[in-house]
Design goal:
The chain is an alpha+beta fold. It is 43% helix and 12% strand.
């Protein structure tokens, strides 16, 4: 996130890191990046040492979910999958995952230099590097604490309620009205997309034997390009699921066969299911619609995060949903 949390200061983060991970760090500076979690760079006297992540765990079950998921990702890394950037166990709890100060789970990973990308891969060489790494992960037996993918999409019931409130003005913040008006155009058709999602999800649940460990969000914003090869960060979305959950992102837009060939060469399979690609496309966009609708119906100040999410809603989410509605209408 671009905006620092008011209830978790750099001094608090520094104290937690010193107590539980590394007594030698001397500073913690907020790192404005990503969406959802908050990040700080914890440094020694001469250079950065750790990336500290704070995930909100106030939702019921969220803490247990993250503990399981981060532990599963650490096991994948321990098996030799260098594409996985694992959390570092606290020195005060060598088998643990993180520390919970108040409303957040704090975890630590090694600080890695590198710039994340804009979301889409630049060329087939980039796609092949990630596809090959994911081929190895997908070929693995899921770690014991890996949770299975469950159909949603998230916040479905909340969005359903908000779609009944499009007749009145959304005045709790500066972007509410803009989002409401956009939803009035496409909102009535979202039911078709949920019906299609349910149909495809039933297919997926009936074919669990082909499920594999998946990252879930392997777009370039979660990739750091290192000299030894790319790595994927943000493994909180790790789930056992159809492989298309990852491949829809990595293989989309490929000019040739190199990315798929790299995936197969490292343990994947060339047998991909277009229905599963559609399923996870729908999941992503329906989740995004719900997230933004909930965010902008609620009180919001119009800070930097609000502004970029509002723009993303108008530029990316609305057109994607309209395309999906058109496709479903023509089916």
């Amino acid at each position: 996130m671009l905006t620092e949390p008011a209830d978790l200061t750099p001094d608090t983060v520094l104290d937690v890191v010193r107590e539980h991970w590394d007594a030698g760090v001397v500073s913690a500076a907020y790192l404005p990046r990503g969406a959802g979690a908050h990040h700080w760079v914890a440094s020694g006297r001469h250079q950065p040492r750790w990336l500290v992540t704070a995930d909100d765990v106030t939702t019921d079950g969220r803490l247990e979910e993250l503990l399981d998921t981060y532990a599963a990702a650490r096991e994948l890394a321990a098996r030799g999958h260098h594409v996985v950037v694992p959390t570092v166990a606290p020195e005060t709890e060598p088998t643990g995952v993180g520390v919970v100060p108040g409303a957040y789970l704090l975890t630590v990973t090694a600080y890695l230099e590198g710039e994340p990308g804009p979301g889409e891969y630049a060329d087939d060489n980039q796609r092949a590097l990630i596809a090959g790494a994911l081929g190895g992960v997908h070929a693995e037996r899921p770690p014991a604490r890996t949770r299975p993918w469950t159909p949603g999409p998230p916040r479905r019931s909340e969005l359903g309620l908000l779609l009944t409130r499009l007749g009145g003005r959304w005045t709790a913040g500066p972007f509410g009205e803009s989002v409401r008006k956009a939803l009035r155009r496409s909102g009535p058709e979202l039911g078709r997309l949920y019906q299609r999602f349910d149909q495809l999800a039933a297919q997926a649940l009936g074919d669990r034997e082909r499920w594999v460990p998946t990252h879930g969000e392997p777009h370039t914003a979660n990739v750091l390009w290192q000299l030894g090869g790319p790595v994927l960060v943000d493994w909180e979305s790790l789930r056992v699921a159809p492989r298309e959950r990852d491949l829809r992102t990595v293989l989309r837009g490929a000019d040739g066969a190199e990315p798929l060939s790299a995936y197969v060469a490292h343990g994947g399979t060339a047998e991909l299911d277009d229905d599963m690609v559609e399923l996870f496309d729908l999941e992503w966009w329906l989740w995004e619609v719900a997230e933004y609708a909930v965010r902008f119906h609620a009180p919001h100040e119009g800070d930097d995060d609000d502004a970029r999410f509002h723009q993303a809603f108008l530029d990316e989410v609305v057109p994607a949903v309209e395309r999906a509605v058109t496709k479903e209408t023509a089916r």
